[in-house]
Structures are given as C-alpha cells and as structure tokens.
Design a protein that fits this description.
Length: 213
C-alpha cells in the first residue's frame, strides 16, 4: 500500500461542507460517516480540489456558495451503506466502481448569500424522509419514479426555474473541468477516472487521518 494525500475542503465564505451521510437526514436515516470515524469532513483528490478552487471567483460574482453534500466516501462506509440498502441499482455495485471511494467526485448544490438552497427539480440524492422510510422497507418503486427528476432529461415546464438552476450549476462545474452525470444533477467527477485508484483510509480519534492506495 502506498500513502497518498487528499485535500481537505473546509467551510468558509465560498464552500459549505455538509456531508449528507454524516447526519441522520439521508436515505439510510443513519450517520454512516461518523460510524467509520470520518464525520462531517470533506476530502478530495488534489486535482478535484484545484477544480473547486477555480469556482471561487465565479461563485463570488454570482453571490452564491457551493454546498458540498458528499465527497470522499471511505470504502468501509460504502460497505455499511450497501448493507443498509442492498437493492440493485441503488449504490454502485462495489466501492471500486464508486467514484466517491476514489475521492474523485463531489455531490453539490448551490446556496444563495443567506445560505438558502436554490431550488432544483429534486433535492440532492432525491432525499425525502418518506422515500427513505419506503426504501428502508425494501419498497423502491415510488422512489425510482421520483428519481426521474434527478436526470438532465427532466424538463417539466412547471420546473423551468429549477431547471435553470440545474443548468447553471452544470455549466459552472463543467467550466472548471468536471464531468456531469446524466442521471444525477448534483454529481460531478474528474474526467479521467482511471487515473485515480480506490482510496483506503484510517481515521484516528484525535482527528488525524491517513489515505492509501
Ligand atoms: Zn455522487
């Protein structure tokens, strides 16, 4: 195993780190990231960190902030998530196939200068408590229908304003070199994924951490 460095992004006047799996308001209704010792911390590949830094002037100019809802996902956390929601098609088939486990992806949304979330066709992860409760019972049909709103192909006229925000976010992220995912408006990753192997991690109780490939 080889030690590598990831960059930590911290909340400031541009970024708001609010990892959705480091609290209970998520599809699993449980705080998986604290369970593996990472908690509400945002780590990314240095290349991804560079892309995010390029967003600063753009966000400032628009009076917006970027809320980061997910970034590096420790493979141990991924395994727990798969156990809680094992259904095919929900999470990636393996940690190896999840770009979050390679620290090469972020899930984001936009906030206005007062910290209020801009409107999008659905919230990040398509999360709503009622769907989470259904999914945890093994009932995914309604949720998968709801997830149609997560796709770039969702173009309902009544959502025109939300779609405008979605397209603005996509443009901003692509302009700094990130790639969008057709079925999740909130997800962006580094384009050359083969360059970034799976990242393992150790989080110590004193907050120090180590990353390995
Ligand atoms: Zn993602």
């Amino acid at each position: 195993m080889q030690k590598i460095n990831l960059v930590e992004i911290k909340s400031d006047d541009t970024f708001v780190v609010d990892m959705m799996y480091a609290k209970k308001d998520n599809m699993m209704q449980t705080d998986v990231y604290s369970a593996v010792g990472m908690g509400n911390r945002c780590f990314v590949q240095p290349d991804l960190g560079d892309c995010l830094q390029k967003l600063r002037p753009v966000l400032h100019q628009k009076g917006l902030k970027l809320k980061i809802c997910d970034a590096y996902r420790p493979p141990l956390a991924f395994e727990r998530m798969k156990k809680i929601i094992p259904m095919e098609g929900f999470f990636a088939r393996s940690a190896e196939r999840s770009q979050h486990c390679h620290a090469s992806a972020v899930d984001v949304t936009l906030l206005d200068e007062n910290g209020a979330e801009l409107a999008f066709p659905c919230v990040v992860d398509g999360y709503e408590k009622k769907y989470a409760l259904q999914v945890l019972q093994g009932e995914v049909k309604e949720f998968y229908q709801h997830l149609e709103k997560a796709k770039y192909s969702w173009n309902a006229p009544e959502d025109a304003e939300k779609i405008k925000n979605r397209e603005m976010l996509r443009r901003m992220m692509e302009d700094v070199g990130l790639a969008a995912l057709e079925h999740e408006w909130w997800h962006f990753n580094l384009p050359n994924k083969e360059k970034y192997p799976l990242v393992k991690s150790v989080f110590a109780a004193d907050g120090s951490c180590q990353f390995f490939i």
